[in-house]
Amino acid sequence: MEHSSKYIEQAVEQMASLPGIGRKTALRLVLSLVKRDEARVNRFADSFIKMKENIKFCDTCHNLSDQVQCSICSDHRRDHSTICIVEDIRDVMAIESTQQYKGVYHVLGGRISPMDGIGPSDLKLAELKTRCKMHEGIKEVILALSATMEGDTTNFYIYRLLDNEKITITTIARGVGVGTELEYADEITLGRSIMNRTPFEVSLSR
To answer: How would you list the strands of the sheet with 168-171, edge to edge?
Structure first.
């Protein structure tokens, strides 16, 4: 579909490149921006530019942050003896929305998937091992990865990776359905899954 303005076409093309946004939705959003006054559009664009220029990854857990250390890792009220391991930053947001978890996180940046060419070295697994070795106060690691074959493979790899550490390894209860990405689980189900977590060894005997 051709538009009467090349600038509209360029804006639609860029908007439609975002995940989950088709061309019709992109056009509707672009036309909405056209109708807004210039100051509002400038603020809108500036917020994205500032985000891209200033956003960082936490040195400790690899969550998004405005500082070297994220607000969760720097919060002394959190339980730093418990680390919840997740695949993605969106999983941190999903778990935080339940208000049931008071520990800290470790974001892997994905899961082991040989079919997609993703191996252990592509994830923040070496950093996890180092973190657990360097901090003697860590007592529990919670595996909160998606209920998929790749998630299970990554869980087992982490279990073996931390085998020599004196750390209890647990996994969230399977209230989250098989094949479900963590971010799509509803807050109540996800909250219960975290609260009712079980020793990882139990899942191996099933």
So the answer is: 103-107, 79-86, 140-143, 168-171, 198-199
Give the global pTM.
0.84
Q: 166 with 138: CB under 8 angstroms?
A: no
pLDDT digits (tens, 9 = 90+) for 100-154: 899 999 999 999 999 999 999 999 999 999 999 988 899 999 999 988 899 999 9
Q: One fold for both 6-54 and 76-204? A: no
Give me the residue label for tokens 């809108």: 44
In terms of Cβ atoms closer than 10 Å to its own Cβ (0-12, 13-18, 19+), residue 161 is middle
Residue extents of the structural domains in the chain: 6-54, 76-204
Side chain identity at 198, as an amino acid letter?
T
Tokens encoding 117: 């060419």
Task: Give pLDDT tens digits for 13-66.
Answer: 999 999 999 999 999 999 999 999 999 999 999 999 999 999 999 999 999 999
What is the fold, at CATH topology level, of the domain defined by 6-54? Helicase, Ruva Protein; domain 3 (1.10.8)
Give 108: exposed, middle or buried? Use CB within 10 Å, 0-12, 13-18, 19+.
buried
CATH 3.40.1360.10 for domain 76-204, yes or no, is: yes
